[in-house]
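Hey team,

Sharing the 1-aminocyclopropane-1-carboxylate oxidase-like protein 11 run so nobody has to redo it. Sequence (366 residues) first:
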Amino acid sequence: MANLQPEYDRASELKAFDETKAGVKGLVDAGIKHVPRMFNRPPYELEKNSSVSVGGNGIHASVPVIDLEGTKEDPGARREIVEKVRNASESWGFFQVVNHGIPVSVLEDMKDGVVSFFEQDLEFKKKFYTRDSTKKVIYSSNFHLYSSPAADWKDTLFCCMAPDPPLPEELPEVSRDVIMEYTKHVRQFCCLLFELLSEALGLQPDHLRDMDCAESLIILSHYYPACPQPELTLGITKHSDSDFLTVILQDHISGLQVLHQNQWVDITPIPGALVVNIGDLLQLISNDVFKSVEHRVVSRSVGPRASVACFLGTVHQPNTRTYGPIKQLLSEKSPPKYREVTIREYVSYFNSKGLDGKSALPHFKL
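Structure output:
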């Protein structure tokens, strides 16, 4: 008997989805009961092991939580905090921070601002919808829509906030004020983070900042609608970040996981906390001392889930500065592992290969 099933035309499905400019939220608003095929992932990518027992000793793995209280006033406390930052950056590549100095009201307003943007009428969002990566403000669903094997169950608002921010009127009106306020606080906080990371590498506090690691700031606000079949897809596929450092604000709905000792571990939301993770470029310049590890977001049947990821050092404008392993960290026993590279070259390669679950770092090894 002849196969009467029509041949799957993925390209047409992607194009039709893109042209609605309504994103994943548009699918949910339309009342779909089944995840479209373009989002489906093979079962091996969807294993959801978490709360892992490490070493068979019954102790559950959890991402380190670091209290920054006293960092600026107490030299003794600062030394202890630097040591915790070093351990977490070497062994996990991720840590959560509390008492970071950003008011809880600002965090809550930022999360509310994300939801407000995505839940406004589509006509207001459409004017920001584009795949032109040179724009400073971009609303889209899946920057890698046409290059990755499967689409992610999320929509995103991209804002390039430094070093050359958009004019206030270029930002969405519904979340304009809080984006600008959050940017101000995050930039101050990241200056402190880069001091602690510099000291954790045995360098002067201003070393990483003087390398312009904190010069560029891109804010990605993610909106994950409730998924009717979360067992079939992911919110964000497995990847590492292409920047120096990422700071993540997540709401109360869990979903973010980090790959630790080959097991997926939940990063449990803590009220008022921020998640910090090492990016590829910081692993490169630290000559593999700090680790940029793979992470993902699993889909949930509840939602929407909102998160805000701030990327430090993913330059949006041309920059001829090259980055390689920091000279002070090299020796005969620790020769350089990577070649010199511009941020633009690194990010271009990272973006061209899409989120395929493989690190871009080996491409730049000596």
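The CA atoms of residues 148 and 356 lie 6 Å apart.

Ping me if you want the raw files.
A.
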